Amino acid sequence: MNANLVEKNMNIRIADFYSKEERSLYLRRIALAESGPTAAIIMLFPSDTKGIDTTCQKCINNGYRLGLSSLSILNIFCKNEHNSPSTDKVNNSAILQEAEQCDQVILAFGSGNTYTDRKEEVLKLLARQSEKLYTLKSSKGTLFSHPLSPFCKEWEIVKVEK
């Protein structure tokens, strides 16, 4: 082997947590490294794509770049059937549990004025974790940006002000 080459292995493990009938996706937990900080990122609703979609790939890339050991992907809605997003108590429970267990909670459900009632409900749900709340700031300075925003290629994570 060339002495100028350094081998660096990545062993990424992904676990999805669905409802029994697999109609709701509550959590995607991604192990990126053996040690380091942990984060949960909360977005809008799960993709209907099985496997790694573009959003998940961007989360993995940025989580790895930030040195996270694991990243939990959650959504304010656990299913989106017929363009009608919905949630349930299990979804709220998963959000709370992951928020309690991780080092940071990254709110990335978009800065738009859609689903404002549910966004507020999730913020109230996370009130006890306020010291852990962060958001994605876009290159335009927009807070609560979604990872798919073209202005959010490399994550800038900022503390959510109370």
Describe it for me?
The protein is an alpha/beta fold and 162 residues long. Helix content is 22%, strand content 26%. It has three helices and nine strands; from the N terminus they run E-E-E-H-E-E-E-H-E-H-E-E. It has helices at 54-65, 89-101, 116-125, and strands at 13-18, 25-31, 38-43, 70-75, 79-81, 84-86, 104-107, 133-136, 157-159. The strands form two sheets. Strands 1-2-4-3-7-8-9 form a seven-stranded mixed β-sheet, with helices on both faces. Strands 5-6 form a two-stranded antiparallel ribbon. A hairpin with a 2-residue loop joins strand 5 (79-81) and strand 6. The termini are far apart.
Q: What's this, in brief?
A:
The chain is an alpha/beta fold and 162 residues long. The chain is 22% helix and 26% strand.
Low-confidence stretches: none
The ordered string of helix (H) and strand (E) elements is EEEHEEEHEHEE
Task: Please give the largest β-sheet.
Answer: 7 strands, mixed
The overall strand count is 9
| Percent of residues in β-strands | 25-35%
Global geometry: globular
How helix-rich are the residues, as a percent range? 10-25%
Major β-sheet strand ordering: 1-2-4-3-7-8-9
Radius of gyration: 16 Å
Average predicted confidence as pLDDT: 92
Structure classification: alpha/beta
Features:
single chain, 162 residues, 7-stranded mixed sheet, two-stranded antiparallel ribbon, 22% helix, globular
Topology:
Layout (H helix, E strand, L loop, with lengths): L12 E6 L6 E7 L6 E6 L10 H12 L4 E6 L3 E3 L2 E3 L2 H13 L2 E4 L8 H10 L7 E4 L20 E3 L3
Parallel strand pairs: 3-4, 3-7, 7-8
Antiparallel strand pairs: 1-2, 2-4, 5-6, 8-9
